Amino acid sequence: MLEQALPVIAVLATGGTIAGAQADATSAGYKAGSFSVNDLLAAVPQLSGIAEIRAEQVANVGSQNMTHAVWRALAERVNTLCQDASVAGIVITHGTDTLEETAYFLSLVIQHDKPVVLVGAMRPATALGAEGPANLYNAVALARHPDARGRGPLVVMNEDVHYAREIQKIASAGLCAFASPNRGRAGGMHGGAPCFYSRNTTTHTTQSEFSLALLERAGWPRVDIVYAHANLQADLIEFLTDSVDGIVLAGVGDGNATDLAIDALSRAADRGVAVVRSSRTGSGFVARDVELDDGSLGFIAARDLNPQKARILLMLALSVTRDTAAMQAVFDRY
Ligand code: SIN
């Protein structure tokens, strides 16, 4: 009998704690992005039983240093690999700090339904009980599985599977650091196979109107986040008004802020800066025209997107329009 060839999975490494090294196996401190992609793969010899791996080092950084330049390189590479009929799926190893942002960005600029799975680890590779090897095994098992197709980029951490739009890092330490607070997990990994609990009903990949080419043409519009708090003043917003294309308010509660800040944001909107209201609370929905009159203030409501993902969607929306109503329609659709 002919032996069946194993599916080819491309593993693109970008660094993070999954590739982190400590001075010794019990120390709290470590350096993210110390090991290469080949080191990571060597720690999981079981992968040779489920896939033919093609490894590439795209970057090797702690993901607090993730940049738009790395996103550009990753998106270009993933789009190319998606066109390669010999590749069944793609795995991206990534630091956990901004993993959700990279996953969401890719979900909007990759126009393919091939599985793309992002994975990280909370414990460095040298730690006692490092979970990176098991996470990486699950990521490859997920990327080669037919059920992973057409769902947009997925994240696998700690045997949970999350959709790119929903996942959030919710704790600074510990193994249970990820959740999908609004719509719930996509599914789980059981014995090396996924079990999905829900479909991804949001707009992504093949339905996305955005692309790297549009973003390049628009010069990657600059969008910054203002974090609301008691006694927030106007001057930070006034400073930003002159230097950004968009501001996302990480607002208190239902996307609110002091009267001083709201007035300054409205003046920014009058001057052509796109202003999105989101919530710093970590979950829930910021509804248009409920707590504030977005229509007369010139604002856009982020609905259930967190501030860091609203920043990405606003950047992409600004690559196709400067019209506030059209940008609100983007937030309503995505
Ligand atoms: C990072 O995001 O690169 C550091 C933290 C981690 O990966 O857990």
Automatic annotation (TrEMBL):
Assigned keywords, A-Z: Hydrolase
EC number annotated for this UniProt entry: 3.5.1.1
UniProt binding sites for substrate: 63, 96-97
UniProt-recorded Gene Ontology molecular function terms: asparaginase activity
Positions of the L-asparaginase N-terminal domain: 9-197
Active site residues per record: 17, 96
Record carries keyword Phosphoprotein: no
Domain named Asparaginase/glutaminase C-terminal: residues: 222-331
Superkingdom, taxonomy of origin: Bacteria
A Pfam family assignment: Asparaginase
This protein's record includes keyword Hydrolase: yes
Gene Ontology biological process terms in this record: asparagine metabolic process
InterPro entries, per the entry: AsnASE_II, Asp/glu_Ase-like_sf, Asparaginase/glutaminase-like, Asparaginase/glutaminase_AS1, Asparaginase/glutaminase_AS2, Asparaginase_C, L-asparaginase_C, L-asparaginase_N
PANTHER family assigned to the protein according to its UniProt record, in alphabetical order: 60 KDA LYSOPHOSPHOLIPASE (PTHR11707:SF28), L-ASPARAGINASE (PTHR11707)
Membership in a protein family: Belongs to the asparaginase 1 family.
Protein name: L-asparaginase
Phylogenetic classification of the source organism: Bacteria, Pseudomonadati, Pseudomonadota, Betaproteobacteria, Burkholderiales
